[in-house]
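Attaching the record inline, Q. Sequence:
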Amino acid sequence: MDTLHIAAFSDGDNGGNPAGVLISNQHPPASDMQQIANDVGFSETAFSYASDGKWRVRYFSLESEVPFCGHATIALGAALAMEHGNGVYELELNDANITVEGRVEDGVMTAALQSPPTHHKPLSESVLAAALDLFGLTQEELDTRIPPVIAGAGATHIVLALTSRERLAAMSYDLGKGRAFMNANSLVTITLAFMETPQVFHVRNPFASGGVYEDPATGAAAAALAGYLRDTGRSSGNAIDIVQGEDMGQRSLLRAEFSDEPGSSIRVSGSARLMTQ
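Structure, as predicted:
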């Protein structure tokens, strides 16, 4: 079984977040999938096989199975388009059913996923204090227009909006401390965001729960952020563009589009590029 290496949400021929994609006749045992994910070495690997007109999908990070991964879904969509043609593919995840559309045109791969439903809730004072302490942030450095929350769209994230792009660029934290905090609060990543305009956000996503210091592109977190903005009336229009990975030299571009219906699915799209192995 050959695992494809595909960078999702790429900026042309550069950037993006690498994911492994293994399409087979059946899922290997969970222990084997975990080992394959570790051998691939990327933050996520998607495992998929065809079943009753759908594609059964599981995602493994370097340390554990996760319920949903946006960039690996985009990579899977590109891989399905390469192997089975352009189209919309139904995906059966552990906890949700979604779709991904994959296309290859003139050698350019693109994909768009429809996320699981969105949700959000306020942060408790103690969890917020611990999150601020993790990154050495103060209350004054938070953008009051976008209050801190726990948000989700298939996976769960904290959203912390910052007042300056410079403070976002200066992000640092202890990986071990971050892993303990995220696991204790059942978080997949933490989203640190700066709003350049109501339609353009710069984002960084620590992924310590998966043993990764930072993700260069995080589709699940993009859906969660877009859903939070939409569901609380903080969005301007029906789409946001997210720039991620700039500060780690892997510039990635994500677009999140949505209807006005609170809690409904978010369409997250971007380009993808096949990587040499």
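The domain at 119-265 is CATH 3.10.310.10 (Diaminopimelate Epimerase; Chain A, domain 1). The chain has a mean pLDDT of 96.

More tomorrow.
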